[in-house]
Amino acid sequence: MSAGNPSEVWRIPLELDQPLPRRVRLTGTGAIRCVFAAACIAFGVGIASHAVRDELRREAANTALTRILAADGRETEATVTRLSTSLGHLVGYDYTVDGRSFSRGAFITAEHWQSLQVGSQLAIRYLPSDPQKSYPESDSPTSETHWLMALLLAGMALFFMFSFAYIQLSPVLRGRRILASGRPARGVVTRCGVNQGRGGGYVVNYDFSLPDGSQCQGRKHSDSQLAEGSAITVLYDPDNPRRNARYPMQTVKLAAR
Q: What CA–CA distance (Å, rounded) separates 67 from 92?
């Protein structure tokens, strides 16, 4: 436990007594948070780009297949084997070409899907040179459903990765703003308990006085335990004293003058 003297005399740290805004730089912890945030953003953009790029390739392949089936395809009857709406209106079908059996699936329009049932006959068009390439006659290959899934995946990746980046950058941005323009005040530790979260360390609760004599409270993380009644230095935003931090900070520090 840190030795805290409730009666100790508090003075404003000399390095804080300089014209505002103060020059600020990152600490090692702050730099790591920024690097991790940048990595999160890059990873999210990479996933989103990969999903969109794959869908562009699929759309090009569907366009080419549609063109080939229209020019060289042959018609035959297939039998519907399954109907699904898990990712769209999907129909599965079996058909035979030159004594060989094939099973395929395709997304079709909702109207067409509703008119079918397992065992129904389905007109399809296949490529004689490669009978596995086929599609329902009335529904040309489309990327609509795939695009929906690709955009959903891209959106989720960007949302979660940018959220993680924001969580990492928030303490850095808040600390930078307060350290650059915050006013110093004498704080008194009112409680210091073990942090039950994943970050470990301690949670320090403190009070500090404003120039008009009113009291404000703060609650911040600490790597070391502090005695109740210990005097600490607090920096606060004069426009919103609820924005405050214990000095020195973990993510930012004063730059050399």
A: 22
Angle between helices 144-181 and 28-72 (to 10 degrees): 160
3-class DSSP state of 44: helix
- What is the C-alpha separation between 237 and 149, in angstroms, rounded? 45
pTM for this model (two decimals): 0.69
Phi/psi of residue 182, nearest 5 degrees: -75, 155
Rounded to the nearest angstrom, the gap between the alpha carbon of residue 120 and the centroid of all alpha carbons in its chain is 45
CB 221 within 8 A of CB 195: yes
Give the burial class of 209: count Cβ atoms within 10 A of its Cβ; 0-12 exposed, 13-18 middle, 19 or more buried: middle
pLDDT tens per residue across span 198-229 = 677 899 999 999 999 999 999 998 888 999 99
Q: Whole-angstrom Cα distance, residue 129 to residue 176?
A: 67
Map tokens 């999903």 to a residue.
Answer: 51
Using CA atoms, how far apart are residues 257 and 242, in angstroms rounded to an integer?
Answer: 29
